[in-house]
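[job 4471] stage=fold_predict status=RUNNING
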Amino acid sequence: MPEPADAPPAADAGLEADLVARPLDARDYSRRTLLANERTYLAWWRTGLTSLAASLAAARVVPELADAKHRWPYTLLGVLFALAGVLAIAYGHRRRIAVEDALRRGAFPLLDRTVTLVLSALGVAIGLGMLVLIVLET
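[job 4471] inference complete, writing structure tokens
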């Protein structure tokens, strides 16, 4: 018996067989939600890659261009940017899988408050660090 046209590809080894086998109902907007989940995953990746690029700039490029007396604050700022980038990419992957699995069960997972707290704290630390460097290096 041939598979229905809307059946997920067999290559989805990361999902359990019973979740993959469940057909998606075109009337419940699950297809649209899965595509939105994919776009959100890509946004986590863009954010992560941007943070990684900023980490390189903060730690290596900016101190060189600014002829900074002390380079360790820039290195610390670069490390914080890199940490935020890695966390964004890793959590984006985890979140994509959780939303897809929950959607197939008819549920929706809440955003992990611990992860968002850590990312927010990193963002505040990076912002404050940048403010301090701007003030001290002028």
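[job 4471] summary: The chain has a mean pLDDT of 85.
[job 4471] exit 0
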